[in-house]
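CORE FACILITY INTAKE
Project code: CF-77B
Contact: R.S. (postdoc)
Sample description: multi-component assembly, three entities in total
Requested service: structural model of the whole complex
Turnaround: standard
Below are the sequence entries exactly as provided by the requester. Do not edit them.
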Amino acid sequence: MHIPLSELIQHFINGLTLGSIYALIALGYTMVYGILKFINFAHGDILTMGTYVGLMTYTGLIGTSTNPTWILLSFVVAMLVAMLASAILGVIIERVAYRPLRKAPRLAPLISAIGVSIILMNLAALIFGTKSRNFPYPFDNSTINWGAVTITPHEILILAVSLALMIVLKLFVDFSRMGKAMRATSLDQEVASLMGINVNFIISLTFFIGSALAAVAGVLVAMSYKVYPTMGGLAGLKAFIAAVVGGIGNISGAMIGGLLLGVLETFGVVVLGIPEGYKDTIAFGMLILVLLVKPSGIMGKSTREKV
Amino acid sequence: MNLLEVQGLAKVYGGVRAVDDVDFVAEAGRISGIIGPNGAGKTTLFNVITGLDEPTRGRVLFKGRDVTGLAAHRVTRLGIARTFQNIRLFKELTVIENIMIGRHVRAGHPRLARLRTVNALHTLWSRAKVEQSIYQSARRWLEFFGLEQFAGELARNLPYGKQRSLEIARALATDPTLLFLDEPAAGMNQAETRELLGTIKRVNGLGITIVLIEHDMRLVMNVCDRITVLNYGKKLAEGTPEEIKNNPAVIEAYLGREE
Amino acid sequence: MIDFLSLLVIYIGIYAILSMSLNLIVGYTGLLSLCHAAFLAVGAYTTAILMVNYHMSFWWSILLAGIVAGLFGLLIGLPTLRLSGDYLAIATLGFGQIVQNVIINWDSLTRGPMGIPNVPMPTLFGLTINPFVKWEFLILVGFFVALTFLVFRHLTRSRLGRALEAIREDEIAAATMGISTFKYKSVAFALGSFFAGIAGSLWAAYNQSVFPGTFDFNLSVLILCMVVLGGLGTHWGSVLGAVIIVLASELPRLVGITDIISPQFKQILFGLILVVMMIFRPSGLLTRRKPDFGRYARLSPAGTNAGGTGAGAGTVQP
């Protein structure tokens, strides 16, 4: 089956766009796992909540206005509000549902996270209703033709924002003092605290940043996929898989894993002809494969338990 | 007769040579000690021999048979048991249950020893009878260590010294020919250490070969027939307690530290 | 009202089997499995397909349902059981999704989203066991609940049960005791999924139909809730958990206020139960019973190390 180059590039761009979303969400998972060695099952639902708040802010600010500048401005404000809402929610959840379980047996925080996830998802349904809502584009989303490739402003926005945020995060973690503190804490909590790092603050900060990034992903995705109570669920799960594939606990890994998953999913359907219904199986298949071959992921180093 | 022979064993983690070309021998019926500063590779050596880690290079011979790289549960079946530096008991289970788990490898019908799955089914079919024999064997080790009063107590509720004894009892319940003890005296006071010394001698008296890692020099010098010294993963010296005590290289490695 | 009560008890019974079987995996062996609904689905669909398409008798189909589900358990266990707790949980979650996904998409076998209706009623010696007639189905379910309970009790009060609990407590130490952790974890998974398959069969017979939408992650979580609430490592706990959760679930209907309480409240309640239980009583309502070995205390006639399979160089005795 011969596919022209321009089509391949098109699919690649689509894949990267999808992958950027996965990457943004995956970052939250990987950062929390890196520090607490714990999978925050509720991450996707924090995304959902933030997105709803963003939607409400956006529609509230716009009202009936048709002023394009105002609309764009409202969008930016709404995005920031969504980020803040998710961030605060993430911090609260850590404080209430996870911190008490730091010394508990391994299963406990996982089960607690599942509980939180269920609560959030249904709370969203209760407050905002189960019907999916539209998140209107803040700009004219007509396709732009660039040679044989078509792209929409929406996709450009996704790619640009994701790239920017990932670069900022990487710089922050690698070069700033707090980033260093985060890295130290993820290596050894005890030693970090002995060196004067406020571990609780760093943990809260991790949840803050990770949740905010997820909200960005949620808002970006909402415009094309709408907003509904379970939106965080499947995307969150896939993003988690991306994080594992890239090497959980590793920030670059999350980015690589996310982009890889996005590209593979897109190519899987259009190039390999995997039926639409089985699309999700690609992600799970990747997960099983990675867990079998190299559980520590693409960028990960295997950690051993000290006997 | 050499019960255990370690030849040219090496374990490398990334760039770190945790164990570097170590030769070691444990004579049957004797008590051998392995000492060295922290990080010398002693526990890593134990882990590799007992199957909790894979060697990078080298061979391990047990009773003349090559057991290099065998998984932990297989190593135990052959007759090597061990305890851990940071006691690893089954905390939520009772003391007697802990020891009974030690009987896991030896439970069932003697003639089914090689057919493990069939034996396992047998332990379910004749549950009561098998449970009785497991219980009674475990009970004898309970009494050997004077832990009778704690039989029904949860392992995590035991005082520290008793937890150590329990861990050793559990290891002995596997009917080992060779017993590895990893810092058994850690965290013990003088009285407890003296008691431990007696216990080690009693166990040895049953015919069990012992290899022990320790930092407590008084214990080591008093109980070991032979001592091997490791430093930075390499063997530094080997000999009788007297020879080791006076070995300048050993003294230097410890920076003249005396316990 | 009496019919509704027996409906309730039947559901409690089926969930008790599910809860006990998951407990074997989660509570006894310490493996967080999030795909129990998938095993339920496999069992339910096996029975539905065999009875509808091949006119098999219920009794053969329930046996096969268990076996097929058990095989799925082994299948899922093979790649995932080498992984540590968190990864295992996610892998099982993934598998659960895959199973549901496949059921929905494999139309030719499962009729996809349409499900399989008209599953015939079980018959015993010519007598039809009608789910809607008084006590008949209730006794059927009760029989399997009792069977499951007794089998599990026998298994856990044995060398096998201790091995599983050893793995839960400390996998590395368990390996050092000669326990092949991979083998025993696989056994736990296979047994747990086998009985989930049995529950699935009862489910299909009772509902007289199967639909893929039922067997989702939420259902797996619901069953987990029962296990966690009732108590890890205790079979009565699992039964208790099933009783409480099913009652809580159906309480609005019992009291007659279904209009006011929306389904989300129920789910939020379950979520809260999970979180609160973990923070305040992680081991569950009922605690693991300390085994009583009193009756083994008599000395055996041989006096020495009887019943042992011998050590390396002969039997060691203190």
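Facility notes:
- The longest strand of chain A covers residues 144-146.
- Residues 5-36 of chain A form the longest helix (32 residues).
Invoice: internal transfer
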